[in-house]
Amino acid sequence: MKTFILTNKKKLVLAGLALALSVSSCQEYLDVEPQDKLNSDQVYRDVFDADAAIIGTYGKFMQLAEKHVLLNELRADLMATTRNSDPEMIALSEHSVTADNRFANPKDFYEVIQNCNDNLKNFDIMLADKKFTQTEYNQRYADIGALRSWVYLQLGIHYGSVPYITEPIENLDDVKQTAIYPRITFEELIDELVAFTEGLSYTSPYGADSSLVINVDGYNTAKFFINKECLLGDLHLWDNNYTQAAIHYKNVMETGTMSGNDSERFDTYRVKFAEVASNNDLAVGYLRFREQDRLALIDNNTQGWRSIFARDRDVLWNTEWIWSLPFDSNFAPKNPFINLFSNQGGDYLVKPSQRAISLWEEQTQRNGFPYDARGKRFSYNVIGGDEVIMKYLYKFLDPITQMPIDLFQTDGEWFLYRAAKLHLRYAEAANRDNQSRIADALLNFGIQSEYTVPGITDKTDIEQTFEPFPYNFDARAGDFPRFRADWHRNGGIRGRAYVERAEVLGDSVISIENNLIEEAALELAYEGNRWGDLVRIAIRRNDPSFLADRIYEKLNAEGNAQAESVRTKLMVRENWYLPFVWNEEE
Amino acid sequence: MLKKLQLNCFLGLLFCVALHGGLYAQETVDSTAIQNKEGIEVKGYIKDATTGESISGINITVENFSAAISNEDGSFSIKVPNLNALLSISGQGYQTKVVPVTSTNTELEILLFEAHYSQFYELAQLPSGEKLQYSNPKAASVVDFEATQWGNPINESAGDFLQGKVAGLNSVRKSGVPGAGAYLNIRGFNSLYATNKPLLIVDGMIYDDEDYGSGILQYNASSPLAMLDVKDIEDVTILKDGSSLYGTKGANGVIIITTTRPDELTTKIDFTMYGGMNQKPEQLPVLRAGQYRTYLTQLVSSRGDSQSQIAAQPWVSDNRANGEYFTYNNTTNWQDKIFRTTTNQNYYLRIKGGDDIAKYGLSVGYLNNEGVTSYSSMERYSTRLNASLRLTEKLSVDANLSFIHNTENLRDQGLAYKTSPFYLALTKSPFLAVNAIDAAGDVSPNLADVDIFGVSNPVALLENGIGVNKNYRFFGNLHFQYVFNPNFSLNSILGLTLNKERETFFIPDFGVADIVLPTAIGNNRSGSEVQRLYSIYTDTWLNYSKQLGNKNFFDFRLGFRSQSNDSESDLGLGYNSATDDFTSVGSGSNLLRFVGGSLGEWNWINGYLNADYNYLNKYYLTLNAAVDGSSRFGNSIQQGGFALGDSYYSALGSISGAWIVSSEDFLRNSEAINFLKLRASYGVSGNDDIGNYTAQQLYVSQNLLGVQGLVRDNIGNPELKWETVSKLNMGVDLSLLKDRLNVSFDVYQNNTEDMITYESTTTTTGFDYIVTNSGSMQTQGYDLSLNSRLIKTSDFGLDVGLNLSRYVNEVTRLPGEPIISEFGGATYITHEGQDANLFYGFKTNGVYATTAEANAEGLSRPLGNGNLLPFEGGDIRFEDLNGDKIIDDRDRSVIGNPNPDLTGSFNAKLNYKRLSLSALFYFSVGNDLYNGVRYNLEGMSGYENQSIAVLNRWVAEGQQTSIPRATWGDPLGNASFSDRWIEDGSYLRLKTLVLSYDIPTQLQYIKAIQVYATANNLLTFTNYLGYDPEFSATSSIFGQGADLGLMPQFTTMQLGLRLGL
């Protein structure tokens, strides 16, 4: 052997060289990068890649819209099934969802979560590799982190205990890991979410100079992204940390405070009173001096309360909307709401429940009309004999004929957060935080109306709360001396809706809380809040009947024979939750 | 490019090392065997097996030892080194044969047959080189094309041509579309998601037979194999086992094709011309106008139309004055308007010739084959130059270069309900007319537009539509050979494949139903797609053979292959151009244009070693080993193979052995048994069709409005690797009665491990599945091939042959739930413990005669909203398998198996003097088919015309019938996928019948004149009710046996003339 090596030394060297070269050249030859997709080496290289990742995750997030609305509304008491609903939707409405029901499958939620996990992990790596700045990192990490918390909150609301997975899936081992992930209870989940989300070091919206805030296809993207303070407020509210919740909500309510532009300063997220002269507002209103004429109702896409859902993203829109994602017929995904709600050009799968209708009918307008126009005039209409939920259809149906303007023109919005909701949530926190008066004021006719003293012209010492943050409101509007305080235009939710104030009966905290939740039904119906509201209050009061009774009333009013048994079932908290399906095909 | 350069450098180095080693090896060649000329003398005589006459001038050789030539009386004597020597006997016009020396005492009687007579003496082209089947331990079959290629029907491509010629090779013609090709597999299937196509090797180089585009002409597939002219092929070797030398590409067996060999020293010219007729297929019986009107009236009343509403329909009124009478009172046979009897023609010229230095074979061909419709056609220009150059004593180079160009006229077929002329011809209302008709009954030359039922005019699609596929392929290689000495040589093949396919279509607005696009109504539509494949292939190997003494023979081959591939597809679709005169994508609406495409790139390297050992010319042993690297493999594979650097390599191999029992002493003198060989092999091969990038974690674009972002596309699986297929084969080759009966029989078992599955994951991963190697499958079966010369006289001869093959498949491991897949309206289930791909649907049991009968059973159907609709009289009686009184998906069960129990062929060849008649029957037994055409013709739910079977539909209480009632929209799902549509697809077909006559010629410059009369698909015996029981609409196994209504196969008859100059 030794002699062999010696005699063949040259050859062996050459062979060794060839081998070494071949290993390295083979390796390169076999290392082929995909051409029409990207692999993990080709992404997350700079801030624009990070932006693309965020855009992608929000694109996936859009796919949750239909489910979000159905889970939160059809399970609750304001929405009912129609003759066209499929058995799985009926089961959802009747709280008899089984594991083979598509609504029991949390995959869609986890698809977004896993993309968030992938984003967050790679943002960390990018920061460590100095591929973007700390500021760029903070903003983006907080956005995606908050979005993930929002999705987890929804998962918790609907499925109770869920696995809280925060690492991306990258290989077979990760797949096996997720299969044995422990499920944590809703309370534990809330604690996790509060801890994580509070830990985010950036809570403002993206700055106007951010590369993510741009105009695209006629939409400004600023309101596409989750509002982290609103989410934090919600999380604390679920956690019953009322002061903390109020602080975060109040931060959003004061968004306009520092603005040099008066209308931005006074109008942004402050639920402004009606402009009775011009009707260029977001209030329920009538043509001036024709308040007793039913036909004088301001009912179009550019004025009044209806325009909240129908108007373009203009100045007024920006005073109400905090978070909303558009569906545009030129781009996927297709607006799912047309199919869901419309009986013209859609499948008409859900409708307003009789209970919701009667809630609106039980209200009295300030002009004496025995109903709330937010009901049958705005939130739903009767089209061709069917009660049709309208909030999502204003851009699709012709205002006069109630027929589709163009079957292919399916623009619309996914409504996620607006000022009215913010005020109601803030009021809920304030009410529980010994600030019932403020809560009642925001619910009804506003701070000024509540804190004013009739007949006094000098407003210096009135029309304000004299409370420390977050309960400080100054709504003074006086001319001698002149005051135009930040909150002087706040008209209250019911004030803006032109309905009589909600009476406080008995225990004021409970009563006001009841009023707030009912107002949320009237104001925010079908915007994906109702089930969460019912669950939150029922848990807070440890009173399942708060939820069960409402579902019972809905089903009963629909003539559903299951109403009583559903009520009995929902008296047990475990039964509020959908079955959590781990494996789709089971 | 840099990578390729580097690889070439590496190859160069390998050459150097090899050369170096080679020169060194040369010095040590053992040459003692050749020098020993003493030996033992053996005597014998040679006879012609047909005539029994002695033949002279036959070469007898013992390899590397001695040679002799037979005398006038056929006798010879030759020295052999020992009694285990093999005599090789060859002569002009005879099949070269090897004969073991039996003894020195008796004279050997050797019978020679004509060339290509016996499978056992054919020369197989194996991945390790040429080998005589006699000593081949592997299960291989050789198909010689020479005998039959000249009479081949010109609408049969190479894949179709092989049908029935080899036991174990399953060939299903895709459709009647000229150039459609065939769905090929060897011994059933080994994979669910990866390819089941055998590897194709043409002239030493991998021939890519994939389709790299989406195929914008619906349900048409391109088949590069079909581009090869049958007349350019000399022989084909089908290697059914032991294909490990191709590593992770060999799992499905190998088909090795050799085209024209430039082996003539004298100039030889073959010119052929053919002309023939494509006969239009027999029509399916559909309702005539009156019957259809009655049917339609009943149908629309079932949706609730009142008598007065029906009476107001224009097609009901018999008032000639109402202006529409003449439009709705025709009797049109739409199938007549579609199908035509057409012609085909083919011209082919081949020149072979050359001298000692350069030999060549040049062929050019032209083919024009019209399908059975007036618009369908295929036109092909082909040219091939195969040359063999001897540059120096030791260095030679072979060039195989071909260029083929096809132009095909096609139309949508299959499930394209608005645009498939076949579908429309069956289902369009017979009372409507092709042309517009005015109130006075005058027929316009203009075509009729879409009818009131929203159904397109099939003639408009034919006349005003466009569907063209132009494709070309350059396929060529250079094969260098350097011979150091007769025992040692170095070879290198360098090849290039360049394939381009351009498909365009236009569907006019006028006469064709609109489609709904996401943002608009589409009226006319156009499309264009370009597919491109660019592939470089190299194969470099060293051959070394060595003989130790007179008993041990060794052959080695050590080689290295590489293949780099690049594919691209770009497509554009346009809609709503201003008028039907603007037929290009560019003239469509700017808002509606769609562009798409895909890119692929993958590289493969393969190092291989083959070692053949032969002891005493009786015991043969072959060892194969292969090491593969592929860009498709993951980089952290857990088991099987090994890592080198960052890449992962497979290690595969096979062992095969053969024992020639007839050479043993106890059988040497047997009169009955002329040849008996036992074979066994076990090998492990791989399948690398696992997706180019599946192992990698991928990101794809995801839009938010018009902004593109990135999201995760998959769960990458870094452990992803090839599928591993182990093959066990046992075979026997037997020749009896002086070689007049030859039988081969093989049993085999293929086990697929690491089979690709789409393993479902938990919902919390956010993905539906991960691609893993976690399935396994088994296919067992046998092949029998039997050939016999029944009669032989000098004037008259009759040969018959039989091929039989059977395979049984079982999925042995499949993680998760059964796979339920849909294709063309059929539902399939793949379940652990069962055959893959079984039809899965409802079982039915006739029709309820009365509503009372239906009520008594109390079954109902859930509607979309969950309400239950009870069955009534006239509805199908479905079997309620789970007993819940509700007929839904849970009542489905296995209702058929598209895999045949047995396939085979029977052939006979009759010779009388210069006349010969050969027939090939092909049959398939026990396969089930889903008759999707009949589903459309008996569904009775809409305006579609129906088959005459619906005349027996249930119309009145108490009626006993097997056809249910007509109900608008079929709310009870009487037509849902059930055993009603599953038919026995067994058939026996006279596939080809060729009559040929060799015209005697005295002319000096004409060597041969032959005339051929050929019929293809002349007779088909089947109970199948569709056009034809043979079709394959997809290359996936999920979808075999589903009849989508593709262009049916048709009968052709042709006359041909061959001139040999």
Give your account of this protein's structure:
The complex is a heterodimer of chains A (586) and B (1061). Chain A has a domain at 41-419: Alpha Horseshoe (Serine Threonine Protein Phosphatase 5, Tetratricopeptide repeat). Chain A has 586 residues and is mainly alpha-helical. Chain A is built from 25 helices and 13 strands. The mean pLDDT of chain A is 92. In chain A, a hairpin with a 2-residue loop joins strand 12 (477-479) and strand 13. The radius of gyration of chain A is 28 Å and the shape is globular. The longest helix of chain A has 26 residues, at 134-159. Chain B starts with a helix and ends with a strand. Chain B is mainly beta and 1061 residues long. Chain B has a 22-stranded antiparallel β-barrel. Chain B has a five-stranded mixed beta sheet with strand order 10-15-16-13-14. Chain B has a four-stranded antiparallel beta sheet with strand order 3-2-5-6, with no helix packed on it. Chains A and B meet through helix 2, strand 1, helix 3, helix 6 and helix 8 of A and helix 1, strand 30, strand 35 and strand 36 of B. Strand 1 (38-39) of chain A pairs antiparallel with strand 35 (698-704) of chain B, so a sheet runs across the interface.
Task: Name a few traits of the molecule.
heterodimer; A: 586 residues; mainly alpha; Serine Threonine Protein Phosphatase 5, Tetratricopeptide repeat; two-stranded antiparallel ribbon; 25 helices; 8% strand; B: 1061 residues; mainly beta; Immunoglobulin-like; Maltoporin, Chain A; 22-stranded antiparallel beta barrel; five-stranded mixed β-sheet; 56 strands; 9% helix
